[in-house]
Specification:
Layout: E1 2-19, E2 22-24, E3 34-42, E4 48-53, E5 59-64, E6 69-82, E7 98-99, H1 105-111, H2 123-131, E8 139-140, H3 141-155, E9 157-158, H4 169-175, E10 177-178, H5 180-193, E11 197-206, E12 216-226, E13 230-235, E14 240-241, E15 246-252, E16 261-262, E17 265-266, E18 272-283
Parallel strand pairs: 9-10
Antiparallel strand pairs: 1-6, 1-17, 1-18, 2-5, 2-16, 3-6, 4-5, 7-8, 11-12, 11-15, 12-13, 13-14
Helix pairs in contact: 2-5, 3-5, 4-5
């Protein structure tokens, strides 16, 4: 399927302000199931663009605005081919078929911080909640992860949250609600408490079953590393496994590291008068 993603971000100010560099994570991650055909970043000539890669291999576009402005609009248009299967089959190493299993020494070194749960007062609460999904002393690894993935929706109510940042996993459990990024962060932390290597993913959701007026959105989910199978996608917000309907853009240790657009300005808080974001993912 060929898809076109249009991601618009607009900022408005009450007077011209000096704009700081804006960091964009908007380039779809090419792979076996996704091919990037075209990418255009349009600021109406207001900014220059510099490209770099971060420590996770994500493509970062940094926008530099040389002139003060009272409004900016950033329009990103990406065209991709996407053919992830709706019901993927994973070839997992034999010694990892059953949980618990041990990663090799090399994998543990390379996974590093992706194995480490978030510290804090609520860490044991999250750990105990995660252990509740383990059926016995020896259980099927993929079934355990699917149970954890399916177990968030009954416990955590999804809600749109406009506030910046991501809730701590223990806070999401206590509130019993959160946005997609909060739910993904809880899933990742719970998986790490169980000994899995896990990372956060940000990108876009394409759901053809939604209305034609709103067929896409930004989204956050998780990936778990299993030997031989590699990184397996889990979307606890929708209880889905695999990349179908998901367009990955960036991966990181924590979801707060991969916000699509970040930046600032020099001025007072009252100078900012509004921000709008729209995302459309269209087939064809």
């Amino acid at each position: 399927m060929r898809l076109t993603i249009t991601h618009r971000t607009a900022y408005h100010y009450r007077r011209p302000v000096a704009l700081q560099p804006h960091r964009l994570l908007v380039t779809p991650r090419a792979g076996a199931e996704l091919r990037l055909l075209d990418l255009v970043i349009d600021t109406g000539g207001a900014a220059t663009i510099a490209w770099t890669d971060d420590v996770f291999g994500n493509r970062i576009a940094t926008l530099n605005f040389p002139q003060p402005a009272d409004a900016i609009e950033i329009i990103v248009t990406a065209t991709i081919e996407h053919d992830a299967p709706p019901f993927p089959i994973f070839t997992i190493a034999v010694d990892a078929h059953h949980y618990p299993f041990a990663y090799s020494q090399g994998d543990r070194i390379d996974l590093g911080a992706l194995l480490t749960p978030q510290p804090g007062d609520g860490a044991e609460t999250v750990a105990a909640w995660a252990r509740g999904f383990v059926a016995g002393g020896r259980t099927d690894t993929l079934a355990l992860l699917k149970d954890l993935n399916a177990g968030l929706l009954p416990a955590i109510a999804y809600r749109t949250r406009d506030e910046e940042g991501t809730q701590a996993p223990a806070e999401t459990l206590a509130r019993a609600s959160g946005s997609c990024r909060d739910i993904a962060a809880l899933f990742i932390d719970a998986a790490r408490h169980l000994g899995f290597g896990a990372r956060a993913v940000s990108g876009y959701l394409h759901d053809p079953e939604q209305t034609a007026d709103d067929p896409g959105s930004t989204h956050g989910w998780a990936e778990i590393y299993l030997p031989a199978a590699g990184w397996i996608t889990f979307d606890p917000t929708h209880n889905r496994v695999g990349d179908a309907q998901l367009i990955p853009v960036a991966v990181a240790r924590h979801i707060r590291q991969i916000m699509p657009v970040t930046g600032g300005y020099i001025g007072t808080p009252d100078d900012a008068s509004g921000m709008t974001v729209s995302v459309r993912v269209a087939a064809g």
